[in-house]
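Go through this fold for my students:
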Amino acid sequence: MTVIHLPLSRQLMLYTALAMVLVIALVLFLQLAWPIKLGAVSVLILWGGWLWRRYLDRRPVSLQIGIDGDLHLLQADGRQFAVTDVLPGIISPALISARLSGQKGEHANLPVPGSSLDVETHWRLRRALVRFRPAQARDRLGT
């Protein structure tokens, strides 16, 4: 079994902050009255803070790759689940983006910039996500 630790990267924090600044700037450039703009910005800041805190509580901390290709995800709040489905977004040397789902409705978004892991570990993670097959499919294929 291989364990890949997924650190919270500075690049991910920077992109998140940049996205919030851009959205707030767009609201401020709208042709609305200032009280409406300030109210909208306040709501956006509170909502963005709540979403970021929720992500920090539920973010993926490590991914365990079994010998037969099964995946188990450990989250920051201590929850762990066996991955039953991988919905890949971007899987490249620069960025990994995927949504991992569990059997009981659990899910986690997995954004991993290439700079957050060493090259070999990032490659292993990409291979594990690309090669993942649900247990039922492995049983049907005889692997």
